[in-house]
Amino acid sequence: MLKRYDRLYGIDLGTSNTVIYEKGKGIVLNEPSVIAFHQHTGELLAVGSEAQAMIGRAPAHVDIMYPLRHGVIANFERTSRMLQHFIKKIQGRSMFLRSSHIYISVPCDITSVQKRAIEETVVHKGARKAITVEEPLAAALGAGLRLDEPLGHMVLNIGGGTCQVAVLSLGGIVASHTIYRAGMSLDQDIIEYVKRQHNIDIGEPTAETIKKTIGTASSSREERSMDIRGRDLIDGLPKTIRLTSSEIYTVVNDFLGPLIEAIRATLELCPPELAGDVIEQGILLCGGGALLEGIDERIRTETGVAVHIADRPLECTALGTGMMLNVEGKRSKPTRSEAKREEAADDKE
Ligand code: ADP
Ligand code: MG
């Protein structure tokens, strides 16, 4: 049961970014899901933005990793240490998760065993209660859709490790499709392209900057360019070259093919009434990939369905888990005497 002074958190544990919502405060943390360790001693060196800043710049004994892969926890121990660190940062003290209720978003296609493992990881760390919620539902809620109606909605979430298309109706997922290529693989494709076409080796942070600065999903936008620095593969020396948006467009274009196929396949999978709703309502685009220039227009052209970008595509999942928390908060609010009794019991503990 919820106690009066329990803290309620909604967590979007993403492959690229972890976003935490706290009831009564709003979004209290938004950091890359990265952790850095000393390879030999196992000592924790940095977490979040600090660890991300080390990528490509750290000595060999520093092990930097994204502990989630394709939306699934690849390393439980490190994921839980990362979460522990983030919560500690918010709470400003070492007591981890005690008196916390947590809603945590997970991709809709993970198995119930994986879901339970995530809940147990969080509860093991001391949370009073942990509930996993399916990411497309949380993202749709956080983007302002009403899900309790008998009306079909399509959500396309383009994250770091997966792209997920889901059709929702009456608060549940009717059809869905996941592609295990997303923002991070697009960065890898850019690295490969620059290597192949320009004989230059660049790191992941540079590739991501290129994608965000001149990446485009539309061939008709004004041409832009940027200078990038990398290592010449022939003489091994640093070299600066100029890249154009039309070059990056060719890379993005190859990436988009399977994504558009997935949207079509999901529409085919869902019952005709719902497919009709989606065509009328349009597709809701969320996740960091929604910020790629021209992606909405491109999907609209290819599928014939209108596309709306969520207001805060990087935060809507966490906001949605927060909205679910608020519902729980209302439902199980204790009476004043109950709360007093619980507080007294806890003080004794
Ligand atoms: P996840 O939920 O998997 O953690 P996010 O929804 O946080 O993923 O999105 C992260 C991805 O979005 C990263 O791959 C990042 O490079 C990408 N991204 C962020 N901003 C932009 C942008 N302006 N243009 C293109 N991609 C972007
Ligand atoms: Mg996400």
Polypeptide structure, described:
The mean pLDDT is about 90. The protein has a 5-stranded mixed β-sheet, with helices on both faces. It has a 5-stranded mixed β-sheet with strand order 13-12-11-17-18, sandwiched between helices. Strand 1 (about 5-15) and strand 2 form a beta hairpin. The chain starts with 6 loop residues before the first strand and ends with a helix. The protein has 11 helices and 18 strands. The protein has helices at about 50, 75-90, 110-125, 135-140, 185-200, 205-215, 245-270, 270-280, 295-305, 315-330, 335-349, and strands spanning about 5-15, 15-20, 25-30, 35-40, 45, 60-65, 70, 70-75, 100-105, 130-135, 155-160, 165-170, 170-180, 200, 225-230, 240-245, 285, 305-310. The protein has about 350 residues and is an alpha+beta fold. Magnesium ion binds near residues 14 and 317. Adenosine-5'-diphosphate binds near residues 184 and 287.
What descriptors fit this protein?
18 strands; 40% helix; 11 helices; single chain; five-stranded mixed sheet; alpha+beta; 349 residues; binds magnesium ion
CA gyration radius, whole angstroms: 22 Å
Estimated share of beta-strand residues: 25-35%
Average pLDDT: 89
The total beta strand count reads: 18
Q: Which class best fits the helix and strand makeup?
A: alpha+beta
Helix content: 40-55%
Can you tell me the residue ranges where pLDDT is under 50 for at least 5 consecutive residues? none
For the largest beta-sheet, the strand count, sense and barrel status come to: 5 strands, mixed
Bound molecules: adenosine-5'-diphosphate, magnesium ion
Main sheet: strand order: 3-2-1-9-10
H/I helix tally: 11
Shape field: flat
Spatial gap, N to C terminus = 17 Å
Helix/strand order, N-terminal first = EEEEEHEEEHEHEHEEEHEHEEHHEHEHH
